Amino acid sequence: MKNFTKLALVSSIAFSANAMAMQAMDDAALSSTTGQDGINIGIGISKVAIEKLYIHDNDGLATDAKNVVTGTKVTFDTTTTPPTPTGFAANAEVSSTNIVGGTGNAGALLIKGNGIAGDANEKHGLVITANSQALLASHNLADLRIDSDAGNSAKGGAFVNIAAQVSGLDIKIGEIGVTASGTAGTTGIRRGGDDSNYNAILSGLTLKTGQMAANIQLGAAPQGAMIKLNTTMIGGLEIQNLGILDASTKNATRAAGEIFIESIKVADAGKTDLTINQDISVYGAEGASKGYIQMVSNSGPIDNYVKGVHLGSRTAGSIGDIEVQGLQTYYSPSLGVYNPGSVITISSK
Fold first, then answer.
1. What SS3 state is found at 5?
2. What letter would DSSP give residue 335?
3. H or E element: which one contains 31?
4. Which of 55, 172, 184 is nearest to 121 (CA)?
5. Which residues face 281 on adjacent strands?
6. What is the three-class DSSP state of 8?
7. pLDDT tens digits for 39-90?
8. % helix / strand / coil in the chain, to the nearest 5?
9. Is residue 180 within 8 Å of residue 119, measured between CB atoms?
10. Distance (Å, rounded) from C-alpha 157 to C-alpha 331?
11. Contact yes or no for 145/40 (Cβ under 8 A)
């Protein structure tokens, strides 16, 4: 009984100390300790591991699905040299139709462990750790500073501003494949997939990033987008051990074909770091549109270096390295206008 009493006393003291340490600090207390109002959060997680990751498409691909490519005629002013586009003609022309019917049954993309003994992805499809060569000064995985602001009514009013700094990351992704979706069980929330109906499409890859900074605004967004990335990734971006699989050639005696790339490095033209200048916005439903996410990039030219391209299997001899210098993409906000960068839109059906 005496030992139990001592244990209870020690536990109560420890709980009280932890409770004090976890009490929320108001703006006044933060101001006296940090010199600024708001909330500062340091995320000290050193590793994240996920066994399996499923992305279910609940209605699959329709049996009568078609891939239709349409084009719209453009009129030109032939009095100029060279002729300049002046507008779109009213009639659209169908240039090709391809039948790509499915079964209409649910399928899922699956990221899982690669089963290679001793590999970081042996039993986990996704493993994220800090890149020791690109840590924040705090050595945290991420540092956040959160401020609430009344805003300007002319720009939408109140908003929350989250300034995020992220250490460089090593993101190791195991095997990626496609499978038939399973059925949710009665004893848990797991749905999973059908292991007997699975095809691998990527043998895996590793992403190595440098430090990054982003500013997020929720509520109103006077900065012009929900997320603004305007930073330099120190050391650039590197993708390692990328394997693309072709299961259509696989049989009882032949393994799936593979295009294996040892390394892909991306950096600003003539430099070793990578500048990221991107706006990410979420658009709600309007008219026929059900809403979408749009990413607008305004970055300059980049260099790409692809090392060790192996065709057929990763043990096949490399055909050599591929280098692309000064790659610049453009997007057109209006006809005849070319802005450096790109626009990527993601939406559901």
1. helix
2. T
3. helix 27-34
4. 172
5. 294
6. helix
7. 898 988 889 999 999 999 998 888 887 777 666 666 677 787 777 666 655 5
8. 10, 55, 40
9. no
10. 31
11. yes
